[in-house]
Amino acid sequence: MKLLIAGGGTGGHVFPALAIAREWLARGKEREVVLVGTERGIEMKLVPQAGLPLETLRVAGLKGKGGSTLFKNLTMLLPAMFDARRVLRKHNPVAAFGVGGYAAGPMMLATWFGGVPNIIFEPNAEPGLTNKLLARLSKRIATGYEISAQAWGGKAVVTGCPVRAEFFSIPPRKPSNPLRLLITGGSQGALPINRAFVDSMDRLARRKNQLSIVHQTGERDYDAVRTAYARHEILAEVLPFMTNMPERFAWADVIVCRAGAITAAEIAAAGRAAIFIPFGRAT
After folding, report:
1. How far is Cα 242 from Cα 219, in angstroms, rounded to an integer?
2. Band of pLDDT at residue 208, cut at 50, 70 and 90
3. Which residue ranges make up each domain of the chain?
4. Deepest of 76, 97, 237, 267, by most Cβ within 10 A of its Cβ?
5. Which superfamily does CATH assign the domain made up of 167-276 to?
6. Quick count: other Cβ atoms within 10 Å of Cβ 246?
7. Over the chain, what is the mean pLDDT?
């Protein structure tokens, strides 16, 4: 009995997919799972690390694209549909789950044409583009919040956000000295957060003996942020990406992060203090 989970691109899509996959597998030895993403997404690293099978589609995003890029990405939709039908024939799932991201669109559309029961997961108060387009084709819509369920009517089921079990097992801790500060802008990093800390290096330097810092930057800003800490002689662990986030949460006293639905749910499960910096165009 195999479940297909489609979506990815960022940690906000992949980590819920992994949490759903683990819960599905835990409910019976006869159960199997396969995840579907793209070759350019972070799922190429995270899914194999989790020991789970991954199929990929030839697809790219449309939102925010224009000109030749939009045209090129539109031409990829037909090959993506062929890829999705190939995945369906190969795995013959009993149901499919879409978690958002590029791969979810073609894959969920293929399940609808193939008569495979499908569910989409929408963690945000305002749905993303892919889920808006897929809603009419889905049997059920799992939502993170009551306010988003109201927009979907009778199809909606309020499930909350899937969070990996490791976050719930993080023990409470008293603030330490020096204070342990974890800074993360998500799997791709957040330029405004990185810039804010680079611009605040003089202030941080005056308190460097009171702080122990881990800063996840994303690939783009890694060198600039690392150089800024070094120039001000601030001891900080600067990383482009972190795969062991539950362990990092367990280490931290305070977390500075984006206010994404999945991140907020993970912090609530871990019981850590946080300073949320919302993304202005997020939903």
Report:
1. 11
2. very high
3. 2-162, 167-276
4. 97
5. Glycogen Phosphorylase B; (3.40.50.2000)
6. 18
7. 89
Count Cβ atoms below 10 Å from residue 83 Cβ, excluding itself. 22
Cβ-based neighbour number of residue 167 at 10 Å: 21
Q: How far, in Å, CA of 98 to CA of 142, rounded?
A: 10
> Is 2-162 a CATH 3.40.50.300 domain?
no
Amino acid 53 reads: P
How much is the average pLDDT of 93-120?
92
Structure tokens at 7: 């979506």
- Among 51, 47, 105, CA closest to 74: 105
Q: How far is CA 38 from CA 57, 60, 64, 77, 210, in A?
A: 5, 8, 18, 13, 43
* Fold agreement between 2-162 and 167-276: yes
Q: What is the mean pLDDT of residues 126-134?
A: 77
Tokens 């290096």, located at residue: 201
Positive or negative, the CA dihedral 15, 18, 19, 20 is positive
